[in-house]
Write a structure and sequence with these properties.
Blueprint lengths: L12 H18 L16 H16 L4 H14 L6 E4 L3 E6 L8 E6 L7 H15 L5 H13 L6 H18 L3 H23 L5 H26 L6 H11 L2 H12 L3 H31 L18 H17 L7 H21 L4 H23 L4 H7 L6 H12 L3 H32 L23
Helix pairs in contact: 2-3, 2-5, 3-4, 4-5, 6-7, 6-9, 6-12, 7-8, 7-9, 8-9, 8-11, 9-16, 10-11, 10-17, 11-16, 12-13, 12-15, 13-14, 13-15, 14-15, 14-17, 16-17
């Protein structure tokens, strides 16, 4: 009879990941204070390993990864390179690692501070690959250190000029989506790129980021108001307000919003509060810049009709679908997402809009409900794709929610405030904030659903690898 031995050949990556998680869980139990003998001979931990773990965590956090993912990556590396009794602390700007050799030896603690952030999901993706390979035992310490240096020095997948163009493409796609037309979309592209270059000019001279954002919003909004005045004077019928809407959507802080809710849900409340405060500072900068221009325009007699403000509503026209895909992919380019992920992100951008518009048209649900359902759908698909492809999830999620960012609602609220209807304006601004929070909560809920029913993915991403999940309630 034929033998019933297992199939020959190396195990699949899914099996290796499952084994790695089991190995890590076992070693975490072995390396806790309760399971180490303080009287046994101990060796000091390898300083090179401590330095590697800290540098990987620092680069991941500086490149835009969430606090929970950075903590998981650092813990996986500390176990992989035999650092005993390791404790990791990650906040919004500080990373620390403490490891205790045991016996009478003092603990060894290292810390690094993130002073400059550059959103770069290309490096985040490469760092996750490094952590994965190290956790699977495919990289020795020296090889991992060399690989980290290669990632740190590697050029971005897009040239600098294309990153700048990406911001303009966000605005032009958004303008096209809300019915601005080709002329308005072209002007929106130029206005947003000019605003971005203005903020870069100020950044090179040490001006705080808040005022950089104010300047970018002011420049683009001024161009939009100028075109609106020309269109009204010459009766051209252009939806020039779509320029301001597109610029707002290019500046809205989708990444810190999603990360803040992700950190709060995972129990990292300090980082969650800091990221949420960053989100509101960015919103404050946008409101300040656009609001000042709108107020000045109204005082000068520019006709800003509330009845004809640009909005995509619940349309499913070809132009709207192309615009939603364009917004998502342009956001991805501006965040340096690897090019091979762009098609999936474009499809997810269309999916979130179709879900939102379809629900509102068929069931007549409020905008917030449609936003939540669309965000949950994208969250499920994004987390599933991330686990299937062994990539971080934020490069999928952040660009994909861009079509539903509340640019039109925020613009309406600012116009209402400047025209003297302060109560209606504040309600519109509150609705914009509610929609933004619904986006962040929805994509994170999608991730929780995937986590609850699927094992696999990045290192430490299984069902039983989140200590915060058992912090206050549940079984013991």
């Amino acid at each position: 009879m034929p033998s019933k031995r297992g199939r020959s050949g190396p195990p699949s990556e899914e099996i290796m990941l499952s084994r790695m998680r089991d190995w890590r869980a076992e070693h975490e139990r072995e390396l806790t204070p309760d399971n180490l003998d303080d009287d046994e001979d101990t060796n000091l931990p390898d300083a090179r390993a401590i330095n590697l773990v800290l540098r990987v965590g620092e680069l991941m956090l500086a490149s835009g990864e969430s606090t929970e993912a950075v903590s998981e990556a650092m813990l996986s590396l500390s176990i992989a390179f035999d650092l005993p009794r390791s404790e990791v602390s990650v906040t919004f700007t500080t990373i620390s690692l403490s490891t205790h050799p045991g016996g009478d030896s003092p603990p060894v603690t290292g810390e690094r501070v993130v002073r400059r952030r550059t959103l770069d999901y290309f490096r985040v993706n490469e760092l996750h690959t490094l952590v994965q390979q190290a956790a699977l035992g495919l990289l020795e310490l020296e090889d991992a250190a060399g690989r980290l240096e290669q990632i740190r020095r590697a050029p971005m997948p897009y040239p600098n000029w294309l990153i700048a163009v990406g911001f303009g493409l966000i605005a032009s796609s958004a303008s096209l989506m809300v019915g601005g037309g080709l002329i308005v979309a072209t002007v929106a592209f130029l206005a947003t790129v000019l605003g971005d270059r203005t903020s870069v000019f100020l950044a090179n001279r040490g001006v705080a980021e808040f005022y950089q954002m104010v300047a970018a919003a002011t420049v683009a909004a001024s161009i939009g108001v100028a075109l609106l005045w020309v269109s009204t004077s010459l009766d051209l019928g252009l939806q020039a307000g779509a320029i301001i809407t597109g610029n707002i959507m290019a500046l809205l802080p989708g990444r810190p919003l999603v990360s803040s809710l992700q950190d709060g849900i995972s129990g990292s409340y300090v980082s969650a509060a800091a990221r949420l405060l960053e989100t509101f500072f960015t919103l404050g900068a946008i409101v300040s810049g656009v609001g000042a221009v709108a107020y000045t325009a109204v005082r000068l007699g520019v006709n800003m009709d509330l009845e004809n403000l640009p909005s995509a509503g619940t349309a499913l026209d070809v132009a709207v679908l192309v615009g939603s895909a364009g917004i998502a992919m342009a956001f991805a380019i501006s965040l340096a997402v690897p090019p091979r992920m762009l098609p999936s992100i474009g499809v997810m951008g269309v999916m979130i809009w179709v879900t939102y518009a379809g629900l509102r048209s068929l069931v007549d649900v409020p905008p917030v409900v449609g936003t939540v359902v669309g965000a949950v759908a994208v969250g499920v698909v994004g987390h599933w794709l991330a686990r299937r492809t062994r990539r971080p999830v934020l490069p999928y999620l952040i660009p994909s929610i861009a079509p539903l960012l509340p640019g039109s609602i925020l613009y309406r609220g600012l116009i209402e405030v400047t025209q003297g209807t302060a109560v209606a304006g504040m309600l519109s601004l509150a609705e914009a904030i509610t929609v933004a929070l619904a986006l962040g909560a929805g994509v994170n809920l999608g991730g929780e659903l995937v986590r609850a029913f699927q094992r696999g993915g990045l290192a430490g991403a299984g069902m039983r690898s989140r200590p915060a999940a058992r912090r206050t309630r549940g079984g013991y």
